[in-house]
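Review this:
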Amino acid sequence: MKKLFKRLVLKVTFLSDLILDKGIGTKVRLATLAGNFIVNFLFRQNISYSVCTNFKSTVIAGEKLILKSPQRGTFSSLVNSSGCYLQAGNGIVIGSGTIWASNVVIVSANHNLRKADKSWQSTTPVVIGDDCWIGANACIMPGVELGKRVIVGAGAVVTKSFRQSDITIAGNPAKII
């Protein structure tokens, strides 16, 4: 019982740190954050790192997920957007003010099928610039870098980098439209 109480106190402390340090009280409904936190805690999802996600989303290697200045909407998007899959094996850096819709997939590493253990292949991290908008069901693949204020259309599959600013990309594979 003491062990469970100690873990609960640590989680509550973490939750209060998020609210005070990151200013999310104005960006995320507290009921949504608390609900995600409780489901994640009870079902042991997404607890290997210090990010609280929507309980329907999955984050792998979350310690390599970097949210820059999350108080401008990025953290709010992580908490509210459901069905997302973020695999940060080689790192994912998401710029300030970037938001995404439901069911977005961001993958930063592929498996090396030539190795016996099928471990992740090293590539550069996925870097998404400031104030980007990623539409529903978009997929961003390993090594991709997006510039500032890039709009990724719904259902787009981004397989190469678009470092320009103020562009809209869509399609499979994604191209500038």
Notes: Residues 54-176 form a domain with the UDP N-Acetylglucosamine Acyltransferase; domain 1 fold (CATH 2.160.10.10). The CA atoms of residues 111 and 120 lie 4 Å apart.
